[in-house]
Amino acid sequence: MKELYLCRHGETEWTLSGKHTGKTDIGLTEKGKAEAAVLRKKIQAVSFDQVFTSPLMRARQTCEGIDAIVDPSVVEWDYGQYEGRTTAEIHKENPNWNLFYDGAPGGESAEQVGKRADLLLQKARQFSGNVAVFSHGHFLRVLAARFLELDPKMGRLFSLSVASISILGFEKQKPVINLWNETPNF
Predict the structure, then answer these.
(1) Rounded CA separation 61/148 (Å)
(2) Of 39, 135, 153, 180, which is most buried, counting CB atoms within 10 Å of its CB?
């Protein structure tokens, strides 16, 4: 693989409210659809050997019109009992909770998400050119950590905005960040 493009989906009602959105299959807001159109225009200027997308509607809407393989391994973190709740709400019950260190009760741990990220990386490495992934904030953060050969928990260090593009690549055959969290002008 030459470079790995990470494309986070556009705005949803739940990203606006800060709710953890894992398995809940919601679509983009009107603003999110406009963001996705700008992101797609930028991405379509690049040649890709393969494009993967999460099966969830918000990711599929973001890559609409791009030939992509729907891959269940790139879905968002399973938040279990914390699905649909904000971090502030969770902290009222568990003030020290951190998704990357504590995982989600009834959902996934960082290690489990990391294993899914590793599966995607195995698939991506089969291609000699660029690969893109349309997915979700927390999953893409763990994917970046794993690409960089870091523990999945280190995904906490990589903030991602909605409708952002990040590019991972290589320098002297070592994994590096070439671009991080670029949001096209909306």
Answers:
(1) 28
(2) 135
Q: How far is CA 96 from the centre of its chain?
A: 24
Among 80, 103, 95, 86, which residue's Cα sits nearest to residue 155?
103
pLDDT in tens, 56-65: 999 999 999 9
Amino acid identity, position 34 = A
Is 63 in a helix, a strand, or coil? coil
Q: Which of 9, 20, 136, 138 is catalytic?
A: 9
- Domain hosting residue 125, numbered range: 4-182
Is 13 known to be catalytic?
Answer: no
Digit-coded pLDDT (tens) for 97-156:
999 999 999 999 999 999 999 999 999 999 999 999 999 999 999 999 999 999 999 999
What percent of the chain lies above the pLDDT cut of 70? 99
Distances in Å between the Cα of 51 and the Cα atoms of 22, 64, 145, 150, 186 are: 21, 12, 20, 24, 23
Which residue in the list 11, 35, 76, 108 is annotated as catalytic? Answer: 76
User: Count of domains in the chain?
Assistant: 1
* End-to-end Cα, the chain, rounded Å: 30
Question: Which domain CATH number covers 67?
Answer: 3.40.50.1240
Environment class of 171 (CB within 10 Å of its CB; exposed 0-12, middle 13-18, buried 19+): exposed
Q: Between 110-124 and 137-147, two packed helices, what is the crossing angle to 10 degrees?
A: 70
